[in-house]
C-alpha cells in the first residue's frame, strides 16, 4: 500500500482529484499537536480550541526507476514536481488559476464590478493508511533536486512537506466530502484512544 496526496483544484466543485502517489513510502512521518492558547487569566487549562495537528514528511522521487516510461523518460520528474508545487498555488496553479487571475484583473477596475473572492488553495487529502485519510493544507514544500539528465531536467529529488490537518470547522459547508473525512479521522482517533487505555494496562502486566 502506498501513501498519496489527492489534490482537488476546486475545493467546492472539484470531485476528480489529481493524484500525487508516493513513489516510495516515507521512512519517517512526524506529527506535532500544538495546544491553542486560551484567554489570559483564569484557569491555565483553558484553551482556544482543539489542538492544531501538523504532519512533516519527506518523499523521494527517482526517474531512473522508470526511465523506460514515455513521460518520465522524456521529462524526468519535472511534471510531478510541478504538480506538487501546484498544491501551494491558489486554484492549483493550472488553467483555473489563470482564469481567476484574469478575472481578478478585469474586476479590479471599479465600475460596480462584483468583488473577486479571495484566492483559495486547492483542497488536499493525505491518504496514509486506512485510518489516516484526512484533509490537509500544504504549508510548505522544500524540493532538493539531486540528479539531472543531459538537458538538466531533474531525475532525482526529495521533497520535504509540511501539512496542517483541517478539522470540520476549518471547512466550508460545500466541502461535504472533506468534512466527512475530517470527522471520520477524529472519530478513529477517539476510538483508538479508548483501546489505548486497555493497551496501557496490558503493557504494565
From TrEMBL:
Protein name: Uncharacterized protein
Domain of life of the source: Bacteria
Source taxonomy: Bacteria, Bacillati, Actinomycetota, Actinomycetes, Micromonosporales
Amino acid at each position: 500500500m502506498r501513501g498519496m496526496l489527492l489534490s482537488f483544484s476546486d475545493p467546492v466543485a472539484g470531485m476528480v482529484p489529481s493524484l500525487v502517489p508516493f513513489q516510495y513510502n516515507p521512512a519517517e512521518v512526524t506529527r506535532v499537536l500544538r495546544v491553542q492558547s486560551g484567554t489570559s487569566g483564569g484557569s491555565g487549562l483553558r484553551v482556544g480550541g482543539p489542538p492544531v495537528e501538523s504532519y512533516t514528511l519527506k518523499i523521494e522521487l527517482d526517474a531512473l526507476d522508470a526511465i523506460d516510461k514515455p513521460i518520465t523518460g522524456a521529462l524526468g520528474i519535472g511534471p510531478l514536481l510541478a504538480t506538487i508545487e501546484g498544491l501551494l498555488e491558489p486554484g492549483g496553479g493550472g488553467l483555473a488559476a489563470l482564469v481567476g487571475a484574469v478575472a481578478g484583473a478585469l474586476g479590479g477596475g471599479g465600475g460596480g464590478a462584483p468583488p473577486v473572492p479571495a484566492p483559495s488553495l486547492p483542497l488536499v487529502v493525505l491518504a496514509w493508511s486506512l485510518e489516516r485519510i484526512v484533509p490537509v493544507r500544504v504549508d510548505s514544500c522544500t524540493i532538493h533536486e539531486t540528479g539531472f539528465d543531459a538537458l538538466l531536467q531533474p531525475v532525482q529529488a526529495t521533497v520535504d512537506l509540511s501539512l496542517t490537518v483541517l478539522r470540520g470547522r476549518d471547512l466550508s459547508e460545500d466541502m461535504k466530502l472533506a468534512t466527512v473525512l475530517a470527522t471520520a479521522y477524529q472519530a478513529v482517533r477517539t476510538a483508538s484512544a479508548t483501546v489505548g487505555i486497555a493497551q496501557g494496562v496490558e503493557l504494565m502486566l
